[in-house]
Amino acid sequence: METTGPIPFAFFVLALLSSHFLAVEVGGCSPSGWIRGQTPPPGQCNTGDQSECCKNGEEYPIFRCSPPVNSHTRAHLTLNSFEKGGDGGGPSECDNKYHSNDTPVVALSTGWFNHESRCLRNITIHGNGNTAVAMVVDECDSTQGCDDEHDYQPPCDNDIVDASRAVWEALGVPKDNWGWLDITWTDA
Ligand SMILES: *[C@@H]1O[C@H](CO)[C@@H](O)[C@H](O)[C@H]1NC(C)=O
Q1: Phi/psi at 157 (nearest 5 deg)?
Q2: 131 CB less than 6 Å from ligand 1?
Q3: Residue of the nearest CA to atom 8 in ligand 1?
Q4: What distance in Å separates the CA atoms of residue 120 and residue 122, rounded to the nearest whole number?
Q5: pLDDT in tens, 61-101
Q6: Where residue 100 sits, what CATH number does that domain have?
């Protein structure tokens, strides 16, 4: 008994292929690899601003892409120091300078940072029922981590707006809740 002739089978394969590519297209962004965490050497991994440290043997996804940007791009707001000696590491990538945490500045995940294309431009952030404007000064690296250069912190997620305390203040978030917030953002 023949149940699958060559033509239905061809359609089946086509449907399978197109749904696969559609899923990748709509999902927009899959991991481009994984890195294995190693225990930070003594004195490494500054845990200020609730920074996470890599765990030995844990696998962390890396991303070269971020979800597409639209007028209400969903993201997670995190807290970062852009000052010298803070948990942000070296000076900001856009201008090779440190920034006061009293100024509203952010680092974006690698895909959104998009090879410095948003450097020193403002984005508008909606969160906690409020709106804030912040300048992009740095990259939150989604492609590397768990090494000396990244203070043994995991790679950034691909949907992060990593913000100075001025941004959290502008959004009116109570200090006890600083660190993780669902937001949307768009180019200002
Ligand atoms: C970004 O916003 C700040 C504060 O509102 C403003 O002073 C600055 O001119 C803006 N920068 C750009 C490039 O639009």
Answers
A1: -60, 170
A2: no
A3: 122
A4: 7
A5: 999 999 999 999 999 999 999 999 877 678 999 999 999 99
A6: 2.40.40.10
